[in-house]
Predict the 3D structure of the following.
Amino acid sequence: MKKAIGLDIGGTKIAAGIISETGKLLKRAEVKSDPSDREHMFTRVVEVVEQVLNDSSFSITDIEGIGVGVPGKVDRENGIAVFQNNLPWAQFPVSDRLRDQFGLERIEIDNDVYTAAFAEWKAAGGNKNETFVYVTISTGISCAILHQGSFFRGAGFAGEFGLIPILSKARGPKWGRLEKAAAGPAIAKLAETVLEETLSTKDVFERYQAGVPEYQPIIDEVTDYWAQGLYSISCLLDPHQIVFGGSVIANNPFLLEIIKEKLKSYQISEQQHVLNRMSVSTIKQDNGIVGAGLRVFEEN
């Protein structure tokens, strides 16, 4: 059984996993990030790789390579983390540094949303005759598109779903970007504004599910924003399948039925086939490390 290490690197935490070529997560480890300095951050990456190996029965000689997902813009060909909002790694040579550190030739690097999407596509069957979209709603909002088994990247910035403009109806007609209006922090901010109470995003969903009346219009508004954005995807791509991930959706799977109902109200009948193939991630927070690891086994 071939094995790879998958890394999911973020500004808050770094997760590592040993992944089989079938996508099974054999061992997992996690450490806190240290974004105070680029070298301190890399040291934490080394630590989590060593930790996941030490916690397992494998050594680095059992590993085929390392796959890495990092936020922001990535130069995949040269293995460089080009730009990130939450890491001190501008123009950081991730692949070369990992090769030097661990002696493995095969190092694959990509944007973290793309690595998560790859895991979800594989878990969904990896159909190379379809168009597959992965949508993540968490601290931010983004998506990745696989068409006939390959990522659609455009000129390098495709998939920035959170930048799509949506129309806010609740407080007067006003245009805004989807991520600013309906990502996790925006949901908490909306609730605070409407209810004049300090709340977390988790509080909002818990009280909605408990049936507290004041929270019903908040979730109604947020899910309508998502549906507006998703309708753009429906029109432009007409995807065969959409999988949702990110903490907001993965921790609140009941939202899927609300999203379907609202999206259906925008669609014409020829677009509604996708409603039956919309689902919430079953891999959840591990999709980034699983997808990164699986990329090691793909042909270049």
In short: The chain has a mean pLDDT of 95. Residues 45 and 155 are 29 Å apart (CA to CA).
